[in-house]
Amino acid sequence: MNDPVARRIVEQLKSHGHTALYAGGCVRDHLLNLPCKDIDIATSATPDEVQSIFPRVTGLEGKCYGVVRVMEGNQTFEVAMFRTDGLYLDGRRPESVQKSTPEEDAKRRDFTVNGMFYDPMTDQIIDYVGGQEDLRKKVIRTIGKAEDRFKEDKLRLLRAIRFATRLNFEIDPETFREIQKFSQEINSVAVERIRDELDKIWISSAPDRGLTLLDESGMLREILPEIDALHGVEQPPQFHPEGDVFIHTRIMLSLLKEPPLPVALAVLFHDVGKKPTYKVDETGRIRFNGHESVGARMTLQILERLRYSNEIIDEVVIAVQNHMAFKDVPKMRISKLKRFLARATLENEMELHRVDCLSSHADLSIYQFIRQKQAEIPAEEIKPPRLVNGNDLIAIGSKPGKILGELLRLIEDAQLEGQLKTKEEAIAFAQETLKIGKTI
Ligand code: ATP
Ligand code: MG
After folding, report:
1. What is the pLDDT of residues 297-326, one digit of tens each?
2. How many domains are there within the chain?
3. Residue 53 Cα, ligand 1 centroid: separation in angstroms?
4. Do both 133 and 6 map to the same domain?
5. N or C, which terminus of the chain has less Cβ within 10 Å?
6. Full-model pTM
7. Is 136 helix (H, G, I), strand (E, B) or coil?
């Protein structure tokens, strides 16, 4: 909030006879003593006037909405004209905007806590919408009539939950009733926008509360029906005293504090395959055979539907697919264990495994076993450089193809088991193996 560059932009706008104020999220965060990410500036200047004052102005595609970006040094600030929105015909964006006053500009914003201005020159808060009072009460409330505001822009339905989750605020009852009423219409919003809002919920300090609010609002059923379907999926009480799969998942989320996104998503989806694989066996015990593979496939579909990057999809799907492999770790041969430990996704999977245990039987012995092995085995032994490559094996008479690949794998196994230490030993081992192969 004390950014000298933002202040200078305001100063310059004022020296040209315009009004200029900090607006929205940064004012809210300043009053909450939270670090503010970016300072947005609202002004009486039109985009053309802003362009005539500052040498480096970008984001000109936003000009028709009254918004441009001013670049100073390596910083960029959004500078938006005070405006009133025209008609919302598509449920997301106004058809046009008109220049207006700060008060009108405040009233087109979404929630009272997001509708305040701050004058950096006089250190004054300018609040036309009761934002300060709602900050004190810790309430998310629409500016104006909730019904009208959600009708205009359906993304606000999700933004309400995002801000309530991130700030740990309640949602005003009237506002929440309207969110419930409009919940089905969240599907009219572009999936990327939905995803970006959800992500901010998952990586917050209370992703479990976000899940609860999404559920109670009715939007979970719309956006993530596969997670909603985990309600009432019973589990064997001896392993899961906490309750059904939905409760188990929610408790796991409650154990995460500002998690990396792939961890949060892996937790959310790790047991999604339990619904379609639910069976009661002949002894009366509940089984979910293969739920990790079915769940991994479902996770892939869901994440593709939400248009996540391939990198995120891979990380999350691998974690879901692998989460049952942890129970086998203490029985693994050393070569298999080393391969398990060498995987790039291990740390995310460890966090998934940790909260999976803590939210059910609370037995962390496998987690601790892995941590102990990581401490015991030097990093260069977990992933040692290869002793030989394919060309080395061709040089001693192996033919390119499947057998060569198999031989390389046998050599790596023996290396990881500690039986081979040098290239010479590996070559001798390969020659011996090829000789045996020929005599069979
Ligand atoms: P964050 O800290 O996550 O960036 P923010 O409050 O700055 O939170 P932005 O999405 O960056 O949120 O929007 C900036 C401001 O613009 C908001 O504080 C709000 O005043 C206004 N705003 C943003 N989106 C909407 C919307 N869909 N409807 C109405 N006003 C909005
Ligand atoms: Mg912002």
Report:
1. 999 999 999 999 999 999 999 999 999 999
2. 4
3. 26
4. yes
5. C
6. 0.91
7. helix
